[in-house]
Amino acid sequence: MTIKFILLVNKQGQTRLAKYTDEFLSVDERVMLEGEIVRKCLSRTEKQCSIIQHRNYKVIYRRYASLFFLVGVDEEENELAIMEFIHCVVETMDRYFGNVCELDIMFHIEKAHYLLDEMVANGTILDTNRTNVLTPLQMLDKQQQSS
Amino acid sequence: MTTRIREFIKQVRDCKTAAEERAVIAKESAALRTLFKQSDGKSKAASIAKLVYLHMLGYPTHFGQMECLKLIAQNNSNSYAEKRIGYLGLMSLLDESQEILMLLTNSLSVDLNSKNDFVVRTALGALANLCSTEMARDLSMDVRKLMLSRSHPIQEKAVVCAVRLIQKCPELAVEFKDEALALLDLKNNCIVSLHGTMLLGVEICKHEPEAVSWYADKLDVMVRILRKCIMQPVVRTCFIQQKILHLMRVIGKGNTDLTDRMSDVLAEVASKTDPSRTAGSSVLYECVRTIIETGSVGGLRVLAVNILGKFLGSRDSNLRFAALQTLKRVVNLDANAVLRHKSVIMLCIKDTDISIRTKALELAFELVSEKNVEVFMSDFLGFLDDDDSHFKTELVGKICLVVETFAPTPIWYIDIMTEVLLRAGKYVNESAFRSFAALISTAADDQGYAVKKLFSIISYEPEKSNEVLLILSLWCIGEFALELTEGEDAVTSSEIVSVFDRVMRSGGSTKVVIEYALTALVKLSDRYPETAPRIKELILGYNASSHLEIQQRSCEFRRLFNHQKILPQVLEAMPPILSGVAEGEGAEGAPAAAGEGADLGSAPAAAMADPMGDLLSMDAGGAPEAAAASGGDLLGDLLGGGPEPAAAVPAPAAQPQADPLMDLLGGGGGLLATPATPGQAGDMLADMLAPAAPAAPALPTITPHNKDGLVVEFSFEKDAAQPASTLIRARYTNVGGGQIANLVVQCAVPKYIQLKMEQASGSALAPGTGAEIRQMIAVTNTLQGQKPLMMRLKIEFALDGAPRSEMVEVRDFPAGL
């Protein structure tokens, strides 16, 4: 039951955020893997299911406007739970950035990472409560403003 | 000077070509390197975000790792922001470099005891993502303390951290017992840390068999929490419910008493959860998995299967996917319950979505049994017209397997396989093809049927045939031609030769087809002497072929015609092929057969059988896998053909066999005329008639370590039946002048490699004695072909009493392991 990676990809297939948990892949392997998966997912239609099998991963993806959220998991993971989890992530990002868009994530890449780090650790879902997740981020923002 | 991150990202985005992007990034990387080199005490926090961005784009960022460590180690008023980005940088940028992790341990232990809660949380989060085995041992006490912290966010992270610690260092599982169980007892357990608590339970149970009973005692607590969750909106509690159900699944497996106690609450979850939203269906799905995997019986299982049935009929394709996947597990328990949904499953195989189709196909094949194989097969054959090549490969592979396993009669087997070969020949894999050939060769009663069927296809419908079908047909006709000219629908020998003539001339016939055709023709010339002149002429036509193998064969055959005396023996039909599992047995039986040959044979035959007997007994007595490998090799040769994976990778152990055989053949025609046992005849003919398999290069020996007098050498053995596995024979010798004692060699491999090390044959090496220590290491490269074999060796020994320790990375394994 492990999440192996989380990817945020835009409609053109460019990676906007990548988080790997406990997968030590070399840079080339990673770029290749992302390319393959993104190609597979982006070519699918709305009616097809949101789960694809790729190598030894199951990849669950959801599309929000121009952004694709892709989560790679192992064989044992509950796919439907991951679907729900992606939605939680999007809601949390919406709350923090205010109607999140691709540019928000690009220009605040570290914030987006913090947010995911509060929600996932060691490949498992840690917390999905928006208030809990955002407390440390808001606290950081406050610190930055005052300094 | 470095730019601001916002501008930098904009610059990268504005690049119109990849070259332009590389230039921008090279410039920025250079600036960052210079910045990191200056030790002016100024914070470089903002630059780390750039590195994370660079890393995401796939550019090298290792130079930033030390900077991250520096940021983590800071302790000033603004340190939270800096530590946070430092940890983020490490988590993202770190490759498996142990040295950096070692430096990190100290900072982590400081931060875990920090007064600032946020710092503690960040450190725990980083530890949960980065922890290595050494760190797990060093920091387990700190984590245990924090697991019972009063701050909920800290507790929550500490618990998940503990899961990672146990994953990395399973012997810690017992140590966490008290905390793990105490968490379940906390009165007002915050719903969030429950999440981790359940995960921790699963992890501990995985490593500590006794733990199941610890958690079994707490079942009532879990049931109570689960009940509480059902009352709340499912969106808020779905993840908790899943985790509780998961833990129940782990402790309830095979324990009827516990499953009985769970059944009420499981039924409650199954009936009360609303499946219309994803959150609800995810809980239902988890619940069904728990019911099925704990082996619940009766009403509960019916309920579970019904839920899956509902999923299967749903319009949401994700639910269908989940149902198909889970039904596969139900098949073993209750195939009839799944068979009720057969029509829907079959419909799913025709879905437009490849994910659904593949899953449905897997499930359908699970359902096939002896009783229903004929019904299913007609459906499966209907799917052969699909045009997705990946899907088709899978489909054909599975059809072949099912036909092989469940065929009610050989005739049915022949019918179906011919149909498959005809419609999807190029997707039929090597082993299925071989099994089919073996079946025809062993099924004496139905050979005629098979040969006639194949012959009628290649003679009357040549446009439909393909390479694989042609090869098989030609081989069958060569072997069993006599069946063709007898009984109903008999054909004349000259008709057969005409068909051969046409096949060989047709533009579509590949080199391999022609090779088979030549071999078959030469056999025909023996069965029907009246056709011999025509056949000779045909064969002669290839004497100057530009394909070496074809030329070789045709020339050999031409010369063969000059030895009329031995011709009938050389060209006699092949013995029945032993396939699959029988290979091992065949090899075991071989020495006996060889012995017999020595008794029965005339004087030269006895001389011949001698090296053979030696060889075979050596094989059988030595290593079973070597015997199996040579069996596979022999089969490969029988079928001839160049591009055969089995023949292309014979283990080095199989090589000695080839040598004596070469001698045998060198011995000339006189030997061949003596009656030989079928096994030997098979061998001889195989080598004579088949193209020589490309000689397998013996895998070279490597020397990963040669220092301080200690030499480590690796030699390799491969088992042809398991190409992913390699047996490494390690040999340690002392070439120096010192006394080596307490030698211990440890291996570490990346995750995609499985490793099994045997005990070494000793631990001390005296100088100058030529003594050696041997150790066997079995490795399986699960990503063979995609990733090379590699390992790290830790060599520890005492040289004249002084301890030495050495780390060696071994990357120079022979290619293809």
Portion in beta strands of chain A? 25-35%
CATH class of chain A: Alpha Beta
Find the biggest chain interface. Answer: A-B, 54 and 69 residues
CATH topology label of the domain at 702-810 in chain B: Immunoglobulin-like
CATH architecture of the domain at 702-810 in chain B: Sandwich
Distance between the termini of chain A: 42 Å
**Low-confidence regions of chain A:** none
User: Major sheet of chain B: size, sense and barrel closure?
Assistant: 5 strands, antiparallel
Total strands of chain A: 7
The helix/strand series of chain A, from N terminus to C terminus, equals EEHEEEHHHEEH
* Estimated share of beta-strand residues of chain B: 5-15%
CATH superfamily of the domain at 702-810 in chain B: Gamma-adaptin ear (GAE) domain
Topology:
The complex is a heterodimer of chains A (147) and B (817).
Chain A: E1 3-10, E2 15-20, H1 27-42, E3 51-54, E4 57-64, E5 67-73, H2 79-98, H3 102-107, H4 109-119, E6 120-121, E7 124-125, H5 130-146
Antiparallel strand pairs in A: 1-2, 1-5, 3-4, 4-5, 6-7
Helix pairs in contact in A: 4-5
Chain B: H1 5-14, H2 18-37, H3 45-57, H4 65-73, H5 79-93, H6 98-112, H7 117-130, H8 133-147, H9 152-168, H10 177-185, H11 191-207, H12 211-217, H13 219-231, H14 234-252, H15 256-272, H16 278-293, H17 299-313, H18 317-333, H19 335-339, H20 342-349, H21 354-367, H22 373-382, H23 389-406, H24 410-424, H25 430-442, H26 447-460, H27 467-484, H28 493-505, H29 511-527, H30 532-540, H31 548-560, H32 567-570, H33 582-600, H34 603-622, H35 624-639, H36 645-648, H37 655-666, H38 669-673, H39 678-689, E1 702-707, E2 710-718, E3 725-734, E4 740-748, E5 753-757, E6 772-781, E7 791-799, E8 802-810
Antiparallel strand pairs in B: 1-2, 2-3, 3-6, 4-7, 5-6, 7-8
Helix pairs in contact in B: 1-2, 3-5, 4-5, 4-6, 5-7, 6-7, 6-8, 7-9, 8-9, 9-11, 10-11, 11-14, 13-14, 13-15, 14-15, 14-16, 15-16, 15-17, 16-17, 16-18, 17-18, 18-21, 20-21, 21-23, 22-23, 23-24, 24-26, 26-27, 27-29, 28-29, 29-30, 29-31, 33-34, 33-35, 34-37, 35-39, 37-39
Family (chain A): Belongs to the adaptor complexes small subunit family.
Main location (chain A): membrane
Domain AP complex mu/sigma subunit (chain A): 2-143
